[in-house]
Amino acid sequence: MHYKVLIADDSMFMRQLLKKAISSDRYTVIGEAANGKEAIKLFKRMSPDIVLLDLTMDGINGMTALKEIRRIDSRANVIICSAMGQSKIIIEALQNGAKDFIVKPFFNELLPALDKVIK
């Protein structure tokens, strides 16, 4: 099975790094957003299987985008991928519906997190 992934991160470098890390026979990046507003708009339009979402972005931040995406689709598979790895923030993200939380730059956990979410 092939899964569609949306990446939302304010850093183009980080979006490219994430895209390279996950692009495979199993996952295809179908969209990239530079902020939460774009992420929400692309989520509505593209219906990705998984969203990789940064927390620190201009305008609508990742936590707000997470809440809005989960309001649109309560079954949305959102994985937070952020350098902000404090336990309080991780707990808040998980309580708001994130399926997992990957602390940048530890991307060796990324593919196992994606695989876990789709099972």
Automatic annotation (TrEMBL):
Report the protein name in the record. Response regulator
- Report domain Response regulatory positions: 4-119
Please give the biological process terms from Gene Ontology that the record holds. Answer: phosphorelay signal transduction system
For this protein, the record's InterPro entries field holds: CheY-like_superfamily (IPR011006), Sig_transdc_resp-reg_receiver (IPR001789), ST_Response_Regulator (IPR052048)
Q: Which species?
A: Bacillus mesophilum
Modification 4-aspartylphosphate, positions: 54
Q: Which Gene3D superfamilies match?
A: 3.40.50.2300
Q: Supply the Pfam families for this chain.
A: Response_reg
Which UniProt keywords are present, listed alphabetically?
Phosphoprotein
- Per its UniProt entry, which superkingdom is the organism in? Bacteria
